[in-house]
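worker-03 picked up job from queue 'complexes'. Input manifest follows; two sequence lines, order preserved.
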Amino acid sequence: DAGVTQSPTHLIKTRGQHVTLRCSPISGHKSVSWYQQVLGQGPQFIFQYYEKEERGRGNFPDRFSARQFPNYSSELNVNALLLGDSALYLCASSLERKAFFGQGTRLTVV
Amino acid sequence: LAKTTQPISMDSYEGQEVNITCSHNNIATNDYITWYQQFPSQGPRFIIQGYKTKVTNEVASLFIPADRKSSTLSLPRVSLSDTAVYYCLVGDYMDSSYKLIFGSGTRLLVRP
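worker-03 finished. Artifact:
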C-alpha cells in the first residue's frame, strides 16, 4: 500500500514568491493535516481538513491557505514567502486516531 | 502549548532497553497517548498508542499507570538505527478533528 506522498521533495523559492505543496493521503483516509517543522523543533500544526472542509487552523498568518479535493488529496499554498518560511512541510493523513506522515517537502526561501 | 513533558535527551548503548517517560498531568478522559519516532529530514513515524494499562506491538511497549498522568515508552534491545527523536502526544484524535501538538521530543542517542 502506498503511504502518504508529498511533492515536490525539495523546493527553492525567492522572497515574495508563492508556493504550492501537494499531498496525497493513504487510500481510504479522509483527514489530511499540514505541519511546519523548522530545524530543531517539533512539527507545528497548520491546518486540518476532513471531507473537504477545514476543521482546524493553527497560529499561522493568512498567507497560508489550503484546500482538500474530492479525492482527498490536498494542497498547501503560501503567498508572499518570507525567509522564515524555510522549513520542512509535512502532510499527514489519519484514520482511527493514528496519523501517518509523508516524507515532507523541504522549502528553502532565499 | 504541548500538553506533555519529556526528557530533552537520553543516551543508551546497543542491546540495552530504553525507557522514555512522559508526563501529562492534565490528560483528559477521552485523550489517548501516542508516540512517534522521527529521523532527520523525515516525517514522524507512528510507533504505538494506548489509553490505559499496557500496550505492546512488534516495535515497543507502552506502560500507562492507572491515573494516566504519565506513560513510559519502552524500546527493547535498541540498535544504532533507533537513534532518533521520540515524541509523546496526548489528545482525542477524532478523524473529523485531528490536531497533533508536538513538544520538543526526546533525542535518543544509541552508542555502539
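worker-03 released lock.
Residues 29 and 70 of chain A are 12 Å apart (CA to CA).
The mean pLDDT of chain A is 95.
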